[in-house]
Amino acid sequence: MADKLTPERRSWNMSRIRGKNTKPELLVRRLLHAKGYRYRLHGKAGATRLPGNPDLVFAGRRKVIFVNGCFWHFHDCRVGLHAPQANAEFWAAKRSRTRERDARQRRLLEDAGWQVLTVWECELKDSSALESELVRFLETGR
């Protein structure tokens, strides 16, 4: 049986998890770049910062893409629904706040005239379906 992590070790592990330039985000960026799409990174639309700092910004199209980890953003897939046993109340509250913040930021963007797509980490497994969804999102409503 594996030893339980000390709070200090868990804190250290958690501090190493990045919010930008994650593997899922880089995969989506490479896929779109190979298709000829160009974008700004991390919520920059010219000199303006957008609510929620979207991972990819297509300013000319008024579209943004968030690439979310299923666990961290409480997705309804198997990984997102996993509830940690250790410090369960803390994690439930933290993940609920993240979900509420995501919804609030999405509303702010949509109210400002932006179209928003969220790509979930679990969707990266099927690259052809992901590519189709991304192209459809970027090419519709222009």
UniProtKB/TrEMBL annotation:
InterPro entries listed in its UniProt record: DNA_mismatch_endonuc_vsr (IPR004603), Restrct_endonuc-II-like (IPR011335)
Sequence intervals crossing the membrane: none
Keyword Iron-sulfur: no
Any one Pfam family match given in the protein's UniProt record, by short name: Vsr
Record's keyword terms, sorted: DNA damage, DNA repair, Endonuclease, Hydrolase, Nuclease
One term of GO molecular function: endonuclease activity
Enzyme Commission identifier(s): 3.1.-.-
GO BP, sorted A to Z: mismatch repair
Family per record: Belongs to the vsr family.
Main function: May nick specific sequences that contain T:G mispairs resulting from m5C-deamination.
Protein name: Very short patch repair endonuclease
The species this protein was found in: Pseudarthrobacter oxydans
Species classification: Bacteria, Bacillati, Actinomycetota, Actinomycetes, Micrococcales
